[in-house]
Amino acid sequence: MLELLQQSPLIAGGYVFLAALCVGSFLNVVIHRLPLMLEHRWQSEAAEIRNEEAPVQARLNLMVPRSRCPNCAHQITALENLPVISWVALRGRCSSCKAPISPRYPIIELCTALLSLLVFVTLGPTAKMLAALGLTWALVALTMIDFDTQLLPDDITLPLLWAGLLVNLSGTFTSLPSAVLGAMFGYLSLWSVYWLFKLATGREGMGYGDFKLLAALGAWMGWLSIPMILLMSSVVGSIIGVGYLIIRRESAPFAFGPYIAIAGFITLLWGHPLMRWYLGG
Fold first, then answer.
1. Distance from CA of residue 67 to its chain's centroid?
2. What are 241-273's pLDDT values in tens digits?
3. In angstroms, rounded to a whole number, what is the distance separating the alpha carbons of residues 246 and 239?
4. DSSP secondary structure, 191-235, as one string
5. Per residue in 208-246, pLDDT tens?
6. Phi/psi at 68 (nearest 5 deg)?
């Protein structure tokens, strides 16, 4: 596959873009359904702890049931589910009841494709690029889930951490010792901030999902990336927070995970040049 991509970079870029559009469509499903699946799981576990009968719930996973219009329950056909194209062709409305379809869906698909193309252009048709695509797609899903629910599911963050250690067995992004230290430092840095804030104020300043996400990024990019990601996430969070306040005239629910994810993506592609620029070399 890599040989095919290397033979014609322009065609390869087109393949990456189209494939990422399809991945973005699937990520829309993950973003919507995974929090619901977790809620169903928690309800069943809570009922078991209370020695109660588990609530009857419709089968729900990433494949079942088929996608439907939330307004009229019209089952979306394959032609109506083409990334971006179907939304444009339907003029952003359900083919059955004409209820509006949120532009968020094609935006996520298009953003996933553009970010993936950026990864391809930056890293080239290499095994490193393929690994970086997987990380990018996971970060897109985590960003949107955290914006929606202020949750960073273990179902994504923990496999992401182990995947980082796995890809660095051969030093793809950093050495294995650096990856292990990155996972440790990433988790402990925010864990320490969490407990200092809680002891000082009696309140929780962030969730454990933030620790795990930063640990995962440390496993992918090494312990030296942690200070840069923390600094950059604070800057990005401040800019987006102020922008949201100006546009909407209200503060957004605080979710630190998306800013960690954005900073992690930037560090993934341009961490070394940024570090050299910062150090003046």
1. 21
2. 777 667 766 655 568 899 999 999 999 999 888
3. 11
4. HHHHHHHHHHHSS--S-HHHHHHHHHHHHHH-TTHHHHHHHHHHH
5. 899 999 999 999 999 999 999 999 998 888 887 777 667
6. -135, 160
